[in-house]
Design brief:
Number of helices: 12
Shape: elongated
Mean pLDDT: 96
Order of helices and strands: HEHEHEHEHEHEHHEEEHHHH
Bound molecules: S-adenosylmethionine
CATH superfamily of the largest domain: Vaccinia Virus protein VP39
CATH class of the largest domain: Alpha Beta
Distance between the termini: 60 Å
Strand order of the largest sheet: 4-3-2-5-6-9-7
Length: about 290
């Protein structure tokens, strides 16, 4: 197997294929072999797993996934990587590569078509410029057992943040509604080529089978959540007034009381059960 993390091996392969890194595509490739090995191991990938990888790059994580999984499907936007991946992962017959933009893909359909009989997982060193939309799309597809991704450390902290902390926001609620985020380990900039300016972290989102909050209308729930973080450090009623003009002037304060909360509560201190109660109180009025 080609040692993809060895720069002496990879530099000629990249140069011979005229490859240069694209900042716009978030190309920071792993050059420390312990990292993809540890991601695949801690994600719990085994032969019962069907793994969707986003952005294989030159294939360091792809190799580790293919060595362990029943099936791997890797989605890569940059077709210039094809001749390189032919060399680095061409030997694996449990791998399919799709040359597409993951954000344009029907992920649930792909999982249904390609991972029949397997436990669907997602695993990736994500391009940083579109981390949040990709994580949201993977969670909202509701077809994975777990989603293990490397992201900027700051984003990983936001995913796992508790109510009332500075990192907590609408993205934390989205992640924690669909999954239980677990921070696995940090990866310093020198593990990548080119080096990013920030620390990275690997986070595992263990997808919830049951959502225990009895939320009747998830779309309304997320509208409440987004509205609640519109005006941080201000009263929740202000954000709700902006997000739900149809409630009128007094409506927001009333639904907050109906949800059993203090009238001057701030949105960033609330957890999912409280947002669920507010959404329920609003639903009774619309
Ligand atoms: N997995 C490789 C590694 O760990 O070295 C590469 C990771 S690099 C951070 C992100 C990869 O995602 C790049 O190969 C990039 O071309 C690819 N990518 C960027 N945007 C994408 C998109 N919208 N859909 C699919 N792949 C994308």
């Amino acid at each position: 197997m080609v040692n993809v993390c060895d720069i002496q091996v990879m530099k000629p392969l990249l140069e011979n294929n005229g490859f240069h890194f694209s900042k716009a595509k978030g190309q920071n490739f792993l050059i420390a072999s312990w990292v993809p090995e540890r991601i695949a191991r801690e994600a719990g990938v085994d032969e019962g797993a069907g793994v969707l990888e986003i952005g294989p790059g030159v294939g360091p994580l792809t190799q580790q996934l293919c060595l362990r999984a029943g099936k791997v499907c890797a989605v890569e936007l940059d077709r210039r990587l094809k001749p390189i991946l032919d060399v680095t992962v061409g030997e694996f017959d449990n791998l399919d590569i799709l040359w597409e933009d993951v954000l344009k893909l029907d992920v649930a359909r792909l999982v249904e078509q390609r991972f029949s009989g397997l436990r669907p997982m997602a695993c990736a060193n994500l391009p940083y410029y579109i981390t949040s939309p990709i994580v949201a799309a993977l969670l909202e597809s509701e077809c994975f057992d777990s989603i293990t991704v490397m992201v900027q450390k700051e984003v990983a902290q936001r995913m796992a943040a508790a109510p009332g902390t500075g990192d907590y926001g609408a993205f934390s609620v989205l992640c924690q509604y669909y999954a239980r985020p677990e921070l696995l380990f940090d990866v310093p900039p020198h593990c990548f080529l080119p080096q990013p300016k920030v620390m990275s972290s690997v986070v595992c989102l263990k997808v919830r089978r049951e959502k225990e909050w009895g939320i009747e209308d998830p779309e309304l729930f997320f509208r409440v959540v987004r509205g609640s973080f519109l005006q941080r450090r201000k009263k929740l009623s202000n954000g709700l007034r902006a997000a739900f003009p149809e409630l009128g002037r007094e409506g927001p304060a009333q639904v907050i009381l109906e949800a059993g909360l203090e009238e001057n509560v701030r949105g960033e201190t609330l957890g999912i059960p409280e947002f669920a109660r507010i959404a329920d109180a609003i639903r009774q009025r619309l």
